[in-house]
Specification:
about 270 residues, Spore Coat Polysaccharide Biosynthesis Protein SpsA, Chain A, 8-stranded mixed sheet, two-stranded antiparallel ribbon, about 35% helix
Length: about 270
């Protein structure tokens, strides 16, 4: 069974004006023999708020609200399992080969979160991709899955975060990956799985969350920097292909931004 077939719906978070990212994620899916059909695999219109409010940045607020909207949609549609991709996802070359084995673990109802992509330290061994239980904070939300049991409690947690002042110990307006990690720390029963090694990274791309460099704001240079990123991504793809089950990814700008230090252990499951 293909791993994607486990999920009732695949959401791809995308701002309508980021047609560049839309084309690139569609190309990623075509490599796996998949395409956006508007039903099971669909683009989810990301939120671009007018101001940052109490969040660290405008983009952080938009990202938080976008993922919250996905939770609301999944609950309203009574979905069992969902997969969320962000539009700068780069899927590892080993993903296709790992699908049959990796999908079997997700067929049961015992897990809450499954991070197919993340920036946790890679394993020291050369074993093929497998699932590990993880109790550490996890940065980024570019490639993760949720089981039905997690949907309502997680939705309620995010909504509660919106109502609290910044810095509240139970959660407040913050980066959504930090809010997820805080929820997991408050709910030790929420089994979290991570793919080891990671099955997806983030392409080099102009950010919609963090302030961009001067060359990403200068006409003419914006196009040049975009072209250079394409070359960089092609290089990373070539390295990932050569390393087979040892993908090469950039760590992503969100890594390490959430509150808290890693704690706990990881174990094969």
């Amino acid at each position: 069974m293909k791993l994607i077939e486990i999920f009732d719906r695949v959401y791809i978070v995308n701002l309508p004006e980021r047609s560049d990212r839309r084309r690139e994620i569609e190309a990623e899916l075509r490599r796996l023999g998949l395409q956006v059909d508007g039903e099971r695999i669909r683009f989810h219109k990301a939120v671009r708020p007018d101001d940052a409010g109490l969040f660290p940045s405008l983009g952080a607020r938009g990202c938080f609200l976008s993922h919250l909207a996905i939770l609301n949609d999944a609950i309203e549609c009574d979905l069992e399992k969902i997969l969320v991709m962000e539009d700068d996802l780069c899927i590892a070359e080993c993903f296709a080969r790992a699908q049959a084995k990796m999908s079997r673990r997700l067929e049961d109802k015992g897990w809450w979160f499954a991070y197919l992509g993340h920036v946790q330290p890679p394993p020291d061994d050369e074993a093929p991709p497998r699932w590990q239980a993880c109790w550490q904070p996890i940065a980024t939300t570019h490639f993760y899955a949720l089981n039905r049991v997690a949907l309502r409690p997680l939705r309620d947690h995010l909504q509660a975060c919106l109502s609290r002042p910044p810095g509240h110990p139970l959660g407040s307006p913050m980066h959504v990956d930090g809010a997820y990690s805080l929820f997991r720390a408050q709910h030790p029963e929420a089994l979290t799985l991570i793919a080891t090694p990671s099955l997806g990274g983030q392409r080099s791309s102009r950010s919609d969350i963090y302030p961009n460099k001067w060359y990403d704001r200068t006409p003419g240079l914006m196009q040049l920097s975009g072209a250079m990123r394409v070359l960089k991504n092609l290089g990373l793809r070539a390295i990932s292909s050569a390393r087979k089950d040892r993908p090469a990814f950039t760590s992503g700008k969100q890594a390490g931004k959430q509150a808290g230090k890693p704690s706990g252990e990881q174990a094969n499951v």
